[in-house]
Amino acid sequence: MTEKNGSGGGDLPASLEAAWGLRDRPAKGPKPGLSLERIVAAAVAVAAADGLGAVSMGRVAQELGASTMSLYRYVSAKDELYVLMQEAAIGPPAPLSALETGAGWRAALTEWAAAQRERYHGHLWALRIPIGGPPATPNSIAWWEQGLQALRDSGLGEGDKTSVILLISNFVRSEALMTSDLSAAVIARGITPEELAASHERTLKRLVDPERHPGITQQLETGVMSAPDEADYEFGFGMGVLLDGVEALIRRAADGEVKSA
Amino acid sequence: MTEKNGSGGGDLPASLEAAWGLRDRPAKGPKPGLSLERIVAAAVAVAAADGLGAVSMGRVAQELGASTMSLYRYVSAKDELYVLMQEAAIGPPAPLSALETGAGWRAALTEWAAAQRERYHGHLWALRIPIGGPPATPNSIAWWEQGLQALRDSGLGEGDKTSVILLISNFVRSEALMTSDLSAAVIARGITPEELAASHERTLKRLVDPERHPGITQQLETGVMSAPDEADYEFGFGMGVLLDGVEALIRRAADGEVKSA
DNA sequence: TCCTTTTGCGTATGCCATACGCGTTACTGC
DNA sequence: GCAGTAACGCGTATGGCATACGCAAAAGGA
């Protein structure tokens, strides 16, 4: 039962081992010509330039001037590379200023969500990477921890804290994914976002039946579809609703505490 | 400028044309041996049995006793098949009982979201299909319309109605996607959900540093991780928070109306 | 110095979507 | 009834993909 890593215990998934930097450098063979860091950086560059779909083992190797198969000396499968790319794209969270100034949970959560959103928007391709079960990479954990800190003084129970974090995290992801889908459609059809919106509105007007779809018909008449800065607006709207809901939850928790105290 | 469809106007994307049944049966050649419906049904069956990854043109053709290439007489590309599969999986919405009994927007939205969730949970593979821009398929539109109807008497403005619908739709998708990821992980590792949760908790305990991650450490100590029926609980929790937020929005809208009246 | 281990990588396998073209079929206009 | 035409089924070919396997070269440990 010889341990591979210094930390002891059972065997981690290969991708986690790599993400936490627990790989042991073997003392025997020739010097590695590449490194995990360089490979991940190259893959990230490809994804940023040409989308996640352009990330193939061959393409990444080419970018590094190496052969396709040499990558497999550093990465056990493409899925592992995906995990490391995602981890690199999101990066560690910056300190929350709202936590230092004691501005309260609402400001802290807002700042936290906005920071997360910014990372996603800077790396929209990362949203296309399929998640495999619950996250356990260093940066996801750091973001989770920071979310918990934002709720430090909220008075919520531990379970509720995680649930709120999860809820907001998923909301941020959803909004970014919508943005990503939109931009993908725009690129695929080679048009501007405005043209896409107009085209969509025209399509709807053709397909929607006023009898069967009175609500949508009304929406089309009101001209709601042609909203500018849609993504930013929807994000702010959603955060507002979400935080109001959390506020109600916190108030209820406080009332219950007072009652039971 | 001869029109292909009866409805007139410019050319729709092929997948939309198919979804709305606007394909014109050509009067010339031999009788088709297959049909879009049969192809989509076969593809859905494959996805249900072996996951979306198992859906290849070859596999679907095999299931139908036809050759791979014959499918391309009915479907212009695999993406189109995906759209039709998604549309078939979600299906049209059933009438909302809360709308008939006049139970109010909150009950209606709750029923609407639960129905949507049920469809997704019955076809988890459908969540893996990448969305291409804003939806315009018959069933997505029908669900959208129904959501608008649920908010009929809410007093919200048209723009807010759509935003709320979008917010809740995305939440339902997120929760279902988490479930799907979880079940994928469970299947991939050949273990029970309980074993997966336990394994994840063990992994976290090994990787989390009490100094750098005090919040998570506390969570682990409280034993929050080993929650049963996690998915159901999180869904109810999220819906509660969301609806409380919407309630605040509606109240504010009503107040504003009273003031400005 | 020899042996073990690890490196880079060429080759091969098997899957995939799909372009192209051919022979066949069935309807339409004459 | 017959020619023309258009849609059918599908065999074949192309190019891309992840990745298993094995070999030769490199480099540290004995």
Tally of separate helices of chain A: 11
Taken from the alpha-carbon principal axes, the silhouette of chain A is flat
Oligomer: homodimer
In the CATH hierarchy, the third-tier topology of the largest domain in chain A is known as: Tetracycline Repressor, domain 2
Annotated CATH homologous superfamily of the largest domain in chain A = Tetracycline Repressor, domain 2
- Rg of chain A (C-alpha, Å): 23 Å
Largest sheet of chain A: none
What is the N-to-C order of secondary-structure elements of chain A (H for helix, E for strand)? HHHHHHHHHHH
What is the CATH class designation of the largest domain in chain A? Mainly Alpha
Helix content of chain A: 55-70%
Organism (chains A, B): Streptomyces griseus subsp. griseus (strain JCM 4626 / CBS 651.72 / NBRC 13350 / KCC S-0626 / ISP 5235)
GO biological process, one term (chains A, B): negative regulation of DNA-templated transcription
Domain HTH tetR-type (chains A, B): 33-93
Keywords (chains A, B): DNA-binding, Transcription, Transcription regulation
Protein model, in words:
Chains A, B: It holds the Pfam family TetR_C_1. Chains A, B: It comes from Streptomyces griseus subsp. griseus (strain JCM 4626 / CBS 651.72 / NBRC 13350 / KCC S-0626 / ISP 5235). Chains A, B: This is TetR-family transcriptional regulator. 2 copies of one chain form a homodimer. Chain A is mainly alpha-helical and 261 residues long. Chain A folds into 2 domains: 14-90, Arc Repressor Mutant, subunit A, CATH 1.10.10.60; 97-190 and 229-260, Tetracycline Repressor, domain 2 (Orthogonal Bundle), CATH 1.10.357.10. Helix content of chain A is 63%, strand content 0%. Chain A has 11 helices and no strands. The first copy, chain A, has helices at 14-19, 36-50, 57-64, 78-90, 97-100, 105-122, 138-150, 158-189, 193-207, 214-222, 230-260. In chain A, helix 2 (36-50) crosses helix 3 and helix 6 runs antiparallel to helix 7 (138-150). The first copy, chain A, is flat and about 70 Å long. Chain A starts with 13 loop residues before the first helix and ends with a helix. The model of chain A is unreliable at 1-9 (pLDDT under 50). Chains A and B meet through helix 7, helix 8, helix 9, helix 10 and helix 11 of A and helix 7, helix 8, helix 9, helix 10 and helix 11 of B. The first copy, chain A, binds a DNA duplex (30 and 30 nucleotides) through residues 26-34, 56-58, 66-70, 72-73, 77-78.
